[in-house]
């Protein structure tokens, strides 16, 4: 059945409402009173106080479709079939109420009965030592043992730096051998896109403290998360998450603006997907009060805008276009996020100013690079130093790939290893600064702060956000 993204969300929430879950609208992307996190990156993140028992939940059972941003996945965007920077995580939660048995049975019921996914396409994984989960899948649910894989800590033990965590169990969908890789051991957990991980069920039974101790929680919790775009891609049988109903319209928009046709496998196909992904993240981030800056969340936003703009140029769109694409995102998502409509003109304005600034950056960077190249000629060098290329990147926001491209046209190169070690040093500084993170972006009422003249005083870079080039 070809179900649209918004319909899948509704069915998921309805399913859990029927199982007595309190359905909560997505929390903002900016975490509230949580210094450990730059942006909400999972459905459980805004619910931490309920898991820890420091606040009383509205119900012992909840369900959400939570807006998430994962800057750590930015380099994967458009390359893998399944990674977006912004996505929605469908989640069901139990705060010391039901546990593994119910969580597993309901996940299976939803996938097979409500979504109609054939049993023979489904695989599950459990944590190496979790025989309890293995037995529930195998004996109670009836999944044959050769479709249950045991995975280690990196895949099947869910944890943030601190907070609730525990072993997990994942549901994968086998999309068929044509998506497979050359690894003879290709199975769920393989990094290719054949077995696509759609749902992660976390049996959170510990609270990890700053010193890395796992303290057993008095009452174990359930925290599940399923990527909305991923399940949509599976049900709509698209190659990747950027070709599902709501994303496709963004791709079409870029097609008509650039005059180019989207072809999945070409290098340009990647640019289409990156733009569609980033503009959606940008729209939601600005909608939740994030403003471009050189630090923290603002830097994540700046980087997404610049990257999208850069990919627009690669497609031959030379004038600023992102502000117009914002409207397209809002049109597609306003059924669930009508607050975006109210904020539309502000979002457009912020994106427009930032894209213009980027244009200036490019002009300025080219001037500086011209100067560097003159020096190179007079010194008889053919390679630009890591220090200079990093300075261009870090101080002037000039993307490394652009530096490379311009140099290559003249037969020169960049010391990329030198660039990386500069980056490494920067990352160390950032890691320290991050510890001082505060909760700017929230106003006194606990709402996302949207006022244009408030500088986001977020100290510290997201260590992930600067690790890769714009
Ligand atoms: P993967 O191994 O594919 O990177 P993950 O193990 O990092 O996924 P989890 O942290 O378990 O993902 O998050 C729960 C669910 O959220 C995943 O099963 C997936 O459906 C979805 N999800 C995670 N990261 C992304 C992303 N970058 N884009 C879209 N959906 C995602
Ligand atoms: Mg991941
Ligand atoms: Mg995984
Ligand atoms: Mg996972």
TrEMBL record:
The keyword Nucleus does not apply. Binds 1 zinc ion per subunit. One of its GO terms (cellular component) is cytosol. Residues 3-470 form the Alanyl-transfer RNA synthetases family profile domain. One of its GO terms (molecular function) is tRNA binding. Its cofactor is Zn(2+). Catalyzes the attachment of alanine to tRNA(Ala) in a two-step reaction: alanine is first activated by ATP to form Ala-AMP and then transferred to the acceptor end of tRNA(Ala). Also edits incorrectly charged Ser-tRNA(Ala) and Gly-tRNA(Ala) via its editing domain. This is Alanine--tRNA ligase. It comes from Andreesenia angusta. The lineage of its organism: Bacteria, Bacillati, Bacillota, Tissierellia, Tissierellales. The chain holds residues 34 to 503 of 910 of the full protein.
């Amino acid at each position: 059945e070809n179900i649209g993204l918004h319909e899948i969300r509704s069915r998921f929430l309805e399913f859990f409402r029927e199982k007595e879950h309190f359905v909560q609208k997505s929390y903002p992307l900016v975490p509230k009173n949580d210094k450990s996190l730059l942006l909400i990156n999972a459905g459980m993140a805004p619910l931490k106080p309920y898991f820890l028992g420091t606040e009383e939940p509205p119900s012992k059972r909840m369900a959400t479709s939570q807006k998430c941003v994962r800057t750590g996945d930015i380099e994967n965007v458009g390359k893998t079939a399944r990674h977006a920077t912004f996505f929605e995580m469908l989640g069901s939660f139990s705060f010391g109420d039901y546990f593994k048995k119910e969580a597993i049975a309901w996940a299976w019921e939803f996938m097979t009965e409500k979504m109609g996914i054939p049993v023979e396409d489904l695989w599950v994984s459990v944590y190496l030592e979790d025989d309890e989960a293995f037995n529930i899948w195998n004996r109670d649910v009836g999944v044959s043992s050769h479709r249950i894989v045991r995975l280690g800590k990196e895949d099947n033990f869910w944890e943030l730096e601190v907070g609730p965590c525990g072993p997990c169990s994942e549901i994968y969908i086998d999309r068929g051998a044509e998506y497979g890789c050359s690894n003879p051991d290709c199975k769920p957990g393989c990094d290719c896109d054949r077995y696509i991980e759609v749902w992660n069920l976390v049996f959170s039974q510990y609270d990890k403290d700053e010193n890395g101790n796992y303290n057993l929680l008095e009452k174990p919790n359930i925290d599940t998360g399923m990527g909305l775009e991923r399940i949509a891609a599976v049900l709509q049988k698209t190659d990747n998450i950027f070709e599902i109903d709501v994303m496709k319209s963004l791709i079409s928009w870029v097609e008509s603006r650039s005059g180019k046709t989207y072809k999945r496998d070409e290098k340009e196909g990647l640019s289409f997907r990156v733009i569609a992904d980033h503009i959606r993240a940008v729209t939601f981030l600005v909608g939740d009060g994030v403003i471009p800056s050189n630090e923290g969340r603002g830097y994540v936003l700046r980087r997404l805008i610049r990257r999208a703009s850069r990919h627009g140029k690669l497609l031959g769109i030379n004038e600023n276009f992102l502000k117009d694409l914002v409207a397209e995102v809002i049109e597609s998502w306003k059924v669930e996020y009508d607050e975006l409509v109210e904020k539309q003109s502000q979002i457009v304005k912020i994106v427009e100013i930032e894209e213009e600034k980027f244009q200036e950056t490019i002009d300025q960077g080219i001037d500086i690079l011209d100067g560097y190249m003159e020096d190179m000629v007079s010194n008889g060098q053919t390679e630009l130093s890591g220090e200079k290329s990093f300075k261009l990147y870090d101080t002037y926001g000039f993307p490394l790939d652009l530096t490379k491209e311009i140099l290559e046209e003249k037969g020169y190169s960049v010391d990329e290893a030198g660039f990386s070690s500069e980056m490494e040093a920067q990352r160390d500084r950032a890691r320290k600064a991050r510890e001082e993170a505060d909760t700017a972006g929230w106003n006194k009422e606990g709402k996302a702060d949207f006022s244009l003249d408030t500088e986001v005083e977020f100290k510290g870079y997201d260590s992930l956000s600067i690790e890769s080039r714009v």
